[in-house]
Amino acid sequence: MRAILGKKILMSRIFSPEGRQLPVTLIKFDKNTILQIKTLEKDGYQAIQVGSGSKKRLTRAESGRLKKINPEFSPRHFFEIKTNQPYDLGQEITLDQFREGEKVNATATSKGKGFAGTVKRHHFHLGPKTHGSNNYRRPGSIGSTFPERVIKGKRMAGRLGGEKTTVKNLEIIKIDLKLNQILIRGAVPGNKNSSVLLWSKNEN
Predict the structure, then answer these.
(1) What's CA 139's distance to the chain center, in Å?
(2) This prediction's pTM
(3) Domain containing 83: what range?
């Protein structure tokens, strides 16, 4: 598995050589440094822990662990990748592991939209508008006489968004290694400046 953590900058559009309009999302990447290597003998599985971003203050446990790698590095975000590839402690994960035209997945926290009704949250149909109907945006019946309770998982009004979301098979349009930026075709979940994890299960 290959993965790198970046920040969603903006969404725009570009034009293909044929003149087609393509919606794209621009993602920028900071340092992604390997902080821990997990092995089969010690941990029971092979993986690496990666840190990215920066924050003002580290806990004493974090600063003690990072002292061996880079005392000036203060990551805000951590993620783990299961991989069989050989890596070194303190090695930096870069964009050159991906290539243009490749399909990747994007995981992020979706935009929070507050309390929403059934029409907006679950795409329920609207009721009749005319003839004195008072059932225009109401959910309707939520159960039968038995078992005389609301069944778990019933689609009803509630909080919408603000959840971990993955969009799969997004195409990489362009990679800029100098600016550490990448253009992804389509929409990526999350607000502007929110963290986005780009990943692919393929090792190569």
Answers:
(1) 31
(2) 0.85
(3) 2-112+161-200
